[in-house]
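Deliverable D2.4 — example input (structure tokens):
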């Protein structure tokens, strides 16, 4: 039985797409097609899709909300598993569990509606729970790992296990998933009782801050570069430990290549007004990296995940 036949028989023809466009599934709105695409949310179905791909030696790439990723113009070979949707449920007075495909905004809305405090300040965070855990999302000096109690993971061969937060190897823009290629199935978050009106006020303030400081009205993948590491990078005196500040001081705010340009609101964002290609974005990223290195001796590291050979970076999959 061929890969296509087995995948279609397992999930139904309406859920399996060949030569499927990926650009509409990302916040950058660029990139080519996936050889095969399936959208699923349940852990057992994710595991089944992985096993079918492995049996046929087909490469697997995981996609979540499509933020924080740059898909190559040539697309992504093999099977793309898009983890989308799911449920949020209260486990006990101090714990809420969210499936990997739930958006962070969906989790925020659910907890506020149920009078549970903890994640409300993350309102406006793009992407899904799985992507936030994968990259240990950060906002205003806080890491999402501070809220995570445990994570339910799928191994590369589809086995489920629950891992406490302390064993996730969380760091800045990092979790053990970068090393192990495990996939988030769900995550448990620490919560307390809270007043819904106050929680909504906090969420609104977070959204207002994002609107003031980020180019939310344009297509982007969020921050392009990680901020410099104070223990490793020697940032010149007078320049904050900020990738955006370095790109700005290098004179690249507003710099353009084709239809891609460095945001004039936040220099760590590259945006597209429509029509930009992944290649243009990738070349503009390298121009920023090269110029910061030349002027300041600081090596900027990618925060975004690159999917596809022509823009391939340090990571080969994502749940962004």
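Example output (designed residues):
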């Amino acid at each position: 039985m061929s890969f296509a036949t087995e995948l279609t028989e397992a999930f139904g023809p309406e859920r399996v797409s060949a030569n499927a466009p990926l650009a509409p599934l990302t916040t950058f709105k660029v990139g080519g097609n996936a050889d095969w695409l399936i959208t699923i949310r349940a852990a057992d179905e994710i595991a089944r899709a992985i096993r079918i791909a492995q049996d046929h030696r087909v490469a697997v790439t995981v996609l979540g909300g499509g933020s924080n990723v740059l898909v190559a113009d040539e697309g992504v070979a093999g099977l793309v598993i898009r983890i989308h949707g799911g449920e949020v449920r209260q486990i006990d007075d101090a714990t809420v569990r969210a499936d990997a495909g739930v958006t962070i905004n969906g989790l925020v809305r659910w907890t506020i509606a149920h009078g549970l405090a903890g994640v409300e300040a993350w309102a406006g965070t793009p992407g899904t729970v799985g992507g936030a855990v994968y990259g240990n999302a950060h906002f205003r000096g806080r890491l999402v790992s501070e809220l995570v109690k445990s994570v339910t993971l799928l191994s590369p061969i589809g086995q489920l296990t629950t891992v406490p937060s302390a064993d996730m190897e969380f760091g800045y823009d990092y979790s053990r998933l970068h090393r192990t290629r495990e996939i988030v199935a769900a995550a448990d978050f620490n919560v307390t009782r809270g007043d819904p009106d106050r929680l909504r006020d906090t969420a609104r303030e977070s959204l207002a801050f994002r609107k003031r400081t980020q180019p939310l009205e344009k297509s982007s993948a969020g921050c392009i570069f990680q901020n410099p590491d104070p223990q490793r990078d020697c940032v010149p005196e007078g320049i904050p430990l900020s990738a955006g500040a370095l790109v700005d001081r290098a004179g690249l705010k507003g710099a353009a290549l084709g239809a891609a340009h460095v945001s004039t609101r936040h220099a760590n964002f590259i945006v597209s007004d429509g029509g930009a290609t992944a290649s243009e974005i990738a070349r503009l990223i390298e121009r920023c990296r090269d110029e910061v290195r030349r002027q300041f001796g600081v090596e900027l590291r990618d925060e975004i995940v690159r999917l596809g050979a022509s823009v391939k970076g340090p990571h080969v999959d994502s749940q962004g």
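Confidence is low (pLDDT under 50) at residues 312-317.
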